[in-house]
Amino acid sequence: MTADDTRRRGHTAGVKAVAAAAGVSLGTVSNVLNRPELVSPLTRAKVEAAMASLGFVRNESARQLRAGSSRILAYLMLDAGNPFFTDVAKGVEEAARAAGLSVFLCNSNEDAEREADYLDLLEQQRVQGVLITPIDQQSSRLRSLPARGTPVVVVDRAIDDGEHCSVAVNDILGGELAIAHLLELGHERIAYVGGPLTIGQVVDRRDGGRNALRKAGRSEDALIEITTGALTVAEGRGAGQRLAGLPAARRPTAAFCANDLLALGLLQQCVSLGLRVPEDLAIVGYDDIEFAEAAAVPLTSVRQPRQLLGRTAAELLLDESSNPDHEHQRVTFTPELVVRTSTRGALLP
Amino acid sequence: MTADDTRRRGHTAGVKAVAAAAGVSLGTVSNVLNRPELVSPLTRAKVEAAMASLGFVRNESARQLRAGSSRILAYLMLDAGNPFFTDVAKGVEEAARAAGLSVFLCNSNEDAEREADYLDLLEQQRVQGVLITPIDQQSSRLRSLPARGTPVVVVDRAIDDGEHCSVAVNDILGGELAIAHLLELGHERIAYVGGPLTIGQVVDRRDGGRNALRKAGRSEDALIEITTGALTVAEGRGAGQRLAGLPAARRPTAAFCANDLLALGLLQQCVSLGLRVPEDLAIVGYDDIEFAEAAAVPLTSVRQPRQLLGRTAAELLLDESSNPDHEHQRVTFTPELVVRTSTRGALLP
DNA sequence: GCTCGCCTCTGAAAGGTTTCAAGGTTGTGG
DNA sequence: CCACAACCTTGAAACCTTTCAGAGGCGAGC
Known about the structure:
Two copies of one chain form a homodimer.
Chain A: H1 3-9, H2 15-22, H3 26-34, H4 41-54, H5 60-67, E1 72-77, H6 83-98, E2 102-107, H7 112-124, E3 129-132, H8 140-147, E4 152-155, E5 165-169, H9 171-184, E6 190-194, H10 200-215, E7 223-227, H11 233-245, E8 254-257, H12 260-272, E9 282-287, H13 290-293, E10 300-303, H14 306-322, E11 330-333, E12 336-338
Parallel strand pairs in A: 1-2, 1-3, 3-4, 4-5, 5-11, 6-7, 6-8, 8-9, 9-10
Antiparallel strand pairs in A: 10-12
Helix pairs in contact in A: 2-3, 2-4, 6-14, 9-10, 11-12
Chain A binds a DNA duplex through residues 14-16, 24-31, 33-34, 38-40, 43, 58-68.
């Protein structure tokens, strides 16, 4: 076979070829790979030499087929472009590496169809387990996976259906903190910017805000809802456009955004249309991503323990797939308000 | 077998079980899956019913073992936390989906060991191909992969070793644009912030800057190098600390950063230490990520066609793995300077 | 009534690895 | 010189899917 054939045909040398080249049996080659201590040093050296000279690469499919499951764990992210989720992913990877597993990241990009496709794919791949920040947690696919043997841990959403572990941050409390802060500053007309409402976080954070209004003796309906099509900077700019277009007398004096991307877009658009932040419009974001602090006007935001979220989720998953007495858990962390310039101007009259 | 057994043992029903349940042969089940038009409607219905009731899930490992290669393509990113790379990833995914493939993302996080681990893993998985923004393009692993049958396309780096395709943006030109812009504004003491020097982009952008100096009749050594340990916001802040600590007479009046994360960190730290941007320090970033425009002082930056980069890379990879007459190509795009407030203050004397 | 062709279905083989019971070798103690 | 243990190595079986040559059934045409 020529070098050209190799290139075209792809991987070629298997255990069998190595065994033949080294003059030993298949089993011995396998032992060199998996339990080298059982093999005499001489034989091992011969086999290793043969592997090197043939360019042997283990075929993970075959290995997995035999073993029944893989050494890979997947994190299906809601939006890979949002630094919040990449920070969560870092935590996941840290925990996985500590346990000797690798992580594949998948991006559903807030698209239910892609989410479904990836879930199917991962199940077919027989990954060790799936971490997911779901678009729609009612999805039937989400339920069927654990029932068929692929553990699933829900990240950044609380869920209590007895099928999954979940790791979340109390989004209702987070929303409450944000709106309470704005009320304390004297704001009366407050907007909530977020969407779509199929995303649980969007709803919870809004409901938390409503709670704060109620506790302050105001009507829930006081919260002016501006619904966006996604949680992105671009949608934030669109919301800014809408807000800035209102006559000053009716325009909200403060906006609470469902995440920092929206807040940054909103901030940018409003500033460029001549509104002053926080004097004309105070803004609160959510997630406290690294860029929130570096924004045009440093952003007040609700901070979540991002890496811890990921690490904890991965640890629960590992427990689920290795501990026969595993019990599903629902872990909830507590968010924290970080106040910066975007709300810290002069109090309103 | 009880439901509990299923949960513990994992996926269980295979083609064989489905065949038995439907009263047909293995081959027929396979035909239902792969060439349904060959199967009579009646039989097909029976088989589909059996699959549904047994919760059959295709075993991708076995499938792949038989087929020899998978329907998956991987993008090994330099830093998943950098929005530049997630935008590239979006382009990759777009092209892959159009061709019916899925994408797994891996994050080397600027760590050579992790990069190597992932490359091994992906080769063992027999992925269709690997897209990579490498830390060290001399790495032997990078060379051995294509030789053994896994196509590799290098993204955001030009490379010309006859082993890979590559898709890049002209970083030398980008550096030149940035420094030329600063020179035009009258800056004399200009810093270059970037590192480590093992990363090709860091070196090219610096060298481009030196070119600009030379063309302006100045010495290359005029470029004050501030070397960082990574291309992150945190390192940018550190560089800001160092810069701001210099006596004003020796402090550079402008800084060109190897990417926007550094620039944003630098900007933030300098502002918080009381320097005015651009009056005391003009800043140019690189990549023009979405957050550059929304920064405390909107950032002048060198823009690259991010999604296009990813899409093109994926297309080259697909061609390489499907077209027997494939020729390796080196595609280079041209960057573009986007001027914003961070350099647009009053000209210096 | 026979042949031919078409349509549908069958079942064995292959693909690369791991496991494991069993076989072989070497060396020690009696 | 034998028995037995300790240590290595062997090779068949199993994992699950896909493929493909061919078997079987049926209707049409002669």
